[in-house]
Records
---
Amino acid sequence: MHGWTGKLLRIDLQDESVKVEDIPEEILLDYLGGRGLGVKLYYDSVSPEIEPLSEENPLIFAVGPLTGIAPMSGRHAAVSKSPLTGTILDSNSGGEWGKEMKYAGFDAIIVQGKAERPKYIVIRDDEISFESAEHLWGRDVEYVTGKLEGLGSVAAIGPAGEKGVLYAAIMNDLTHALGRGGLGAVMGAKNLKAIVVRGSRKPKVANVEKYKEAMMDMVKLLEASPPVNKGLKVFGTSMLYDIVNYLDVMPTNNFNDVHFDGGEKLSGDYIITHYNIRHEGCWGCPVKCKKKDAKRDIELPEYETIWAFGPNIENGDYEKVVEANLKCNRNGMDTISTGATIAMWRELKGENYLEKVEEVMEHEDLKLGSMRIARKYNAEDKRTDIKGLELPGYDPRGLYGQALSYATSNRGGCHLRAYMVAPEIIGKPKLIHRLNPEGKAGLVVIFQNLNAAIDSLILCKFTAFAMTEVEYAKLLSAVTGVDFRAEDLLRIGERIYNLERLFNVRAGFSGEDDTLPEKIFSGKNALSREIFEEMLKEYYEFREWRNGVPTEEKLRKLGII
Amino acid sequence: MHGWTGKLLRIDLQDESVKVEDIPEEILLDYLGGRGLGVKLYYDSVSPEIEPLSEENPLIFAVGPLTGIAPMSGRHAAVSKSPLTGTILDSNSGGEWGKEMKYAGFDAIIVQGKAERPKYIVIRDDEISFESAEHLWGRDVEYVTGKLEGLGSVAAIGPAGEKGVLYAAIMNDLTHALGRGGLGAVMGAKNLKAIVVRGSRKPKVANVEKYKEAMMDMVKLLEASPPVNKGLKVFGTSMLYDIVNYLDVMPTNNFNDVHFDGGEKLSGDYIITHYNIRHEGCWGCPVKCKKKDAKRDIELPEYETIWAFGPNIENGDYEKVVEANLKCNRNGMDTISTGATIAMWRELKGENYLEKVEEVMEHEDLKLGSMRIARKYNAEDKRTDIKGLELPGYDPRGLYGQALSYATSNRGGCHLRAYMVAPEIIGKPKLIHRLNPEGKAGLVVIFQNLNAAIDSLILCKFTAFAMTEVEYAKLLSAVTGVDFRAEDLLRIGERIYNLERLFNVRAGFSGEDDTLPEKIFSGKNALSREIFEEMLKEYYEFREWRNGVPTEEKLRKLGII
């Protein structure tokens, strides 16, 4: 026993009951918090066949040991089964909400059941109440947040979540999103419009002196890192636009090309010289990578969104991107999947929804995402998703590590599972040759494991532009009082990754789903299928998986079975 | 044409002539300086069969574009064929000498021929003179340096170099060494006792504004990096002792074990609490990793030396290490090879030279290094060298990447060609699993190429605890006015590595020499030969080499042929 404790809040919407439980220390030691804790609690709660939009499907929120303590820890994770992919899914978001949840004293919240009529939940430390959301139902996130923010930090769904858009997001603090995979629809299916939380209890640090030292190390590293202090601080994620296009890894026109001419006004340089930028950050963040147009007081889009509503539908008009982004945020829709879905529709049907993205919510095909459209219209060869989740704006044809990480991601086409963008594009922590398959499998595994750990601490992924496992472990040890080494963090990440995979296998996925869209393997910029398969084979060897399935021996070694 | 210029000084000891030439810009663009430039000039000057201790064998000194400009650039390289290994060899050293050479206006110095009687050379800007060294011959480095340092920075050999000890060093600024591979013997065979240099011309920077920015980035990253600001700054390289022993990668008793009990007084912690430390650094270094005992005004040993005279001969008495180190420095002997050679003798003959290391210079077997002893006494299975160069203090059995980098090093058993110690032990730039072969081949190649570039800039390798290719490229671009990207640096490093390899192949080496000592593959801590061979195979694939030999296609792609 180390004395590391955690609290779980169980909420049942059916009977409006709540229950607080202790989280066993073994679970905290093995899964930390955030994504890891959410995945473990979810795995132990359900049968893998569960229907994502059924009332039985739990929606789990979790914060981590560092949340609300360390710099760049203002984040929370949510875990459930995705209605878009059918896989286990974790999503994570910044802002204030996670910090408030932590201050309220909870490490995890399991929301079960379905309310008979629309409700919102208010959590203020130990006081939990269920309130009618009849007056909020149908209203957008901006409206709901405005109505409820006096009570605390607001996480809410917009009309998209209510209408079952399969890529509906849960928005918190107005502009932050649990974006990918449709958790907004899971929440909507529960008749739950919002969770408002405010906490008053500052979490404790086990070893204050050690924490101060580790925290100062972190702050110094962040201040010194050029991608942080010159990139994110100045441009936000739009710093990526020019380099991605320069390297010919900018998916263009629904992935039919890898370079976009005509995006001069989409680049970070253009934006910061033509807009009056206000820098905003999540709780406890010295970087402030979120940018607003100070004049109009509206949020400016992230790189992914610029890509999704820019090159991927051959649009070079930044203002149209800004508008589409606002609409997505207010209606509660993931911008990547929205953009990729309208790009697919544009290619198949010639109709462009860029200036009417809100209409996708009402459209029987568009609301289901690009994979289901491709299937319905016999265009499987046009797909741009993996396991149903649409690929984001880094083209796998020119980024071999990223390609492999996409294919093997447990939640489908996500760039953040290994974030090979950092080594393959930005050169942090180390520049790796993006067009050479050698050694990629091993690295992708290491980066996937590391990111699973970061998502469980939880810290912002951008800390990895400055810190390594060694510094993460020091922070965690100081805060919890438990001695973690760098290797321990990677092992925990590996455990999480394997448990997610095991869920997916039991839900019917196999190695055959670890692939890339047909488009990636054909055409003028094609990635060689042979090279990809060789990398995948090596990946499985490194993972000790057989055809995408963890071996019993591996699961035993990780303490999963 | 970019306007980047370089000067080469040719010195012939035979007729005491000197000649100054321009270095073609293509060579600077392709090989930068330092190691790369030295290797290129050497390759173009000789036939690979050349006898290392013959008077025809040139000894080349070279500095790089950043030398004497950037922080941590107070270094110079020397290149020749090694009498110990028979391979091409570059060595590099810190201190003031390289900066003085640069300030004298030279990027490379080729020393040819042999003086009839002992000489030393004095270089003061363009004035070069040849002086009699009769009164210095036979004297140690301390004496010679004391006599000559009024004229400038002194690089000198001690008695070991004169006597042809095959691992004799060239010492500069009293305590800095071109240590490995016997360049001191090459210098001795030329009857050249010392080169004294002083320069008065500050090198120019092409773009001062950009340089300032890149330099400030570098300084901030160094100040923020824990292995630099908490490790090297406080403990020097002795920071490594505890972690290396903890991980069971401490070669012990001539590599018969991997852990040393009884070295409590060898650790960095012990040393800094029991000695009155004075911190000293090379020119332009804010880190100052060299430590002195302020009370006695003597240098304290580096980690490698502590290992060589400590665990590797089962000695836990730090003061004996200090003394052996002083003797090696004064006599001009590489401490790693000296320690490894006496460890071999101790195992084979039971006699310990620790307290009489100066006697190895007179000993017909010991002066030839451990490989020749093992051969002479039919103990090939006891060898601890690769290609004749003795392995240093990081055990390959517990560090798979380091193992592969040792085996494939162009100069034999050297830890600094890829310096996998950084990712496998220290976790910079990224912690990599040290006991998993997957992906190691690709990484070793990348780190070998990167280190070849760093050795050519020249910057201290410890900068890599804080910086990546991206920052190196920015510094180089600002100083030279030529636009270099991170990828260009890796390509240049690759070119250098292949040219070195091509020399070795022409000198009779092949893939069969890319191996590890028999001891590493047997006994209780053995590295699996199968795993090693699999990594090596992948390494060759990644390198596009066939059985250790660069393919014509590869050489053509690199512009070598």
---
Amino acid sequence: MAKRSYPLAKVYGLLEPGPVVLLTTARKDRRNIMTMSWHTMMEFEPPLVGCVVSGRNHSFDALRATKECAINIPTRELAKPVVGIGNCSGRSVDKFAKFGLTPVAAAQVEAPLIAECYASLECRVTDTRLVNRYNFFILEVVQAWVDTALKQPQTLHHRGNGVFFAPGEAFRLVSAMK
Amino acid sequence: MAKRSYPLAKVYGLLEPGPVVLLTTARKDRRNIMTMSWHTMMEFEPPLVGCVVSGRNHSFDALRATKECAINIPTRELAKPVVGIGNCSGRSVDKFAKFGLTPVAAAQVEAPLIAECYASLECRVTDTRLVNRYNFFILEVVQAWVDTALKQPQTLHHRGNGVFFAPGEAFRLVSAMK
């Protein structure tokens, strides 16, 4: 995807609709990817994102140790790898190799970006107060990359038990909300 | 909507795809509704939900004081009231009356449920540690009601600036994920 630098003030519109995302980390040159749906925006600018990364995930240790990651937003064409990535562990597998995804160097963090995703958000962990109790990390998005040619990206949304949908046609309502 | 009691273990599938929701509260017989998109699942069972309720919202004080609310999930037919509710304040308006919505008594909390929404989750605030810093409340869902006749509810998903989508056709992928 032809991603360009994207204004941080507009990042909320990428995550607020609830897409499944791919979280990338790197630790001692070991890169990894995990599938994640439990995230929320917490502030517009600088954009803050809260997310749950279970202690059962290999990514948990890397995220806690390096305090860096990237949130990559896949579209429907990547549905099979997205599910596959959620069904195996980085302990035993290089998921970039296994699923034919292309790591791209980030600008501000060590975690790699995924070339095949239409958006990638470079993040730093800014608050770990709820990690012990809930595995909940608060991230600050420090750099965003988006392929803005996709006007209605066909993001993946999980209803549970392997049932997904992608967006139908967008529609506009007059709103004073951001 | 003909809602029935719904298993708490399945609640995550309602919120994980990122729908816009209507948060209801009640304080000293003053009921209110606010529109919210910044929420995430945090635990399967009992279901925990984290959400941002800005201190600028009238609902903030009621939520903090009563530690109770309901999360109501609207479908596309309610798009206009959903936006309208987000564009006015409960300080000066009874939003149930203004938008022609029907309050229904909840089983376990004082906050009213919205009859016109296809799902309603009765919630208690269980953790306020991040309220001062981020306006972030952690809720436990104590009772869920869903109209299970809707197999693919046309929930609303906000891309920012009044642009929304509803789900396209659902599809299934073989997954070991919950």
---
Amino acid sequence: MSHKRVLIIGGGAIGLAIGWRLARAGCSVALFDRGRVGCSASWASAGMLSPLSEAQFEEEDLLHLGLKAMEVYPDFVGELEAETGCCVGYRRDGVLLVGITQDDLEYLKFRYRYQRELGLPVTYLSGAEARSKEPHLSAQVSAAVWCPGDHQVDNRRLVMALKRGVEAAGGEIFEDAAVDELLIDGMRVIGVRVGEKVHKGDTVVLASGCWSRLMPGLPDSAKPPVRPVRGQVARLGTTREFALNTIVWYSRVATSTVAYLVPKGDGTLVLGATSEEMGFDEDVTAGGMFELLRAAWEVVPGIYDLRVVESMAGLRPGSRDDAPILGKTPVEGLIMATGHYRKGILLTPLTALTIAEVILEGRTPEIIRPFGIDRFGL
Amino acid sequence: MSHKRVLIIGGGAIGLAIGWRLARAGCSVALFDRGRVGCSASWASAGMLSPLSEAQFEEEDLLHLGLKAMEVYPDFVGELEAETGCCVGYRRDGVLLVGITQDDLEYLKFRYRYQRELGLPVTYLSGAEARSKEPHLSAQVSAAVWCPGDHQVDNRRLVMALKRGVEAAGGEIFEDAAVDELLIDGMRVIGVRVGEKVHKGDTVVLASGCWSRLMPGLPDSAKPPVRPVRGQVARLGTTREFALNTIVWYSRVATSTVAYLVPKGDGTLVLGATSEEMGFDEDVTAGGMFELLRAAWEVVPGIYDLRVVESMAGLRPGSRDDAPILGKTPVEGLIMATGHYRKGILLTPLTALTIAEVILEGRTPEIIRPFGIDRFGL
């Protein structure tokens, strides 16, 4: 059992999962969130676990990380559910990437060829074949790539389970507790200050997503290059007659809109998401909703009459190269777990396991070595 | 001073305005609402007072009623504001009916010719002329009809002022008080029952909008042929740089979508409205929002980045001929004030004044004679 005192800044999925692993390993854990835990980007997410559908050129390290993350997911979820009694809605739905126009199809084929080069288990389908998998697809859908290895989790249930897990393992959670200063002595972290109160610790984990860079007290060499990338989402209420079998993902080339429809166990259909560089603005906008609804309706016309249950925006922490920033920093005892961008929910278990290893064992696992803050040469 | 005991069923703008006029005339007034007063169709309205822009073929009696309603509006508002100290946001903005496509223009010209035949003071404008009135119009807008005589009120402030007016004049308002039965003895109304409690009265006004037809105890000959016509609306938050000078109204012929943008004094921009026959379903839907946002964005592209502050749906009470149902019924003492459809806020003052005259003086003013329930031959 470790007896370290670990302070975690940020109570999204990443911070909570790290807190859970460390608390159950015997660390004394205190987690601080500026608002309520799990209610920022983690809450706005659609919970897709989709390294196959999202495989991008020039990001093979990141793909490798995502595939590894998929491997550890089932056990992580199993332990969490067993310890907390919560179900987190892990499902192996698969993703259908769909296209309508000639441009969409060129883009689909380009994606498909790249996926095949990487040896990923995906299949190119005609429109009719795609509709046989998902009968709610529009007759306009002319082709699709089927990614059966992509899964999903209920991100909201996940963060609530993680919160319970932290508390059950004896961790302390402070909500509405913005950290006002990171306390560093020489180049060694010694704690954090919240208002007037100083919390001392051996280790501080910076997991505050797009806000990580703004933490007062961070030296320049440990300022993670992350920025907010707004994602607007809507949640629709489905009916007994209307339920998707698969996740549907449409990259609408004509307007560079991405819309995915992710059916959840509680009957809601999550419709995400814009990607907008708007600073820290968390507004839901007329244009954002319009683009999402148009693209979703074009590929799944049956959403037309569904109730709009909710709309919200979250701020993804995008790093300079879109990959996460994980592990040790030039400040002794200060550990990064930020910059997860579009993959925060996917990478939650793997980040928690590897960051716990860094803290408990003092060594950096091979898989996260390409993702250190040192790669930016700050 | 009258000493009648008047019971009003329904606390929308119509019921409240009648209550206010009768209470200040000395009647003992009790008003019953199934929920909170003013929070159904009156709350969802955009508050346009637009008999000119909405003039329809074959509805000349209704146009005449609307124009008369415009005449009495300023004095009515003046009295209400003076008595309650509330400002109800009455504004003389004018409406620009705009078009983009060839089909839109054919429809605009058709509307314009009809308006001119009726002698209404409207002007046909080129796209450039329209943009000089409202610089936020899209360059795609190719023509417009300018209706400077159409005005607006803040419908939400109006109902809140009317509520205060009723109470200040000594009327009683019962909220969360659905009337369970209309009590009739022979063919004379004697009161209403709410739960176990009986309220006696000489006169009962049925002003419960699309729910009017469902009132238990109504004989067939007094069942107003009204049905719910759903209207979905959104409210957007404007910025200092973005404020419309005029109301903009777009009838998008290709999809039969109507979208109007109504700037309010508090900086919100009301965007209405769908017209859907969906029974008593008050859902906001993906398709409804999509159609509204698309049409509004096409004519005023600057809405794209505005925040979506709110979305809701209201149920307009549409009658068989789209005109209101006003005045006496075959049941002595039972007075109708329902079926106002798209014109509830416009007709509120005139309905209140004329219905008060029916009740206080026993005679039916000429202007509302075409709108009796007897016209349906029930």
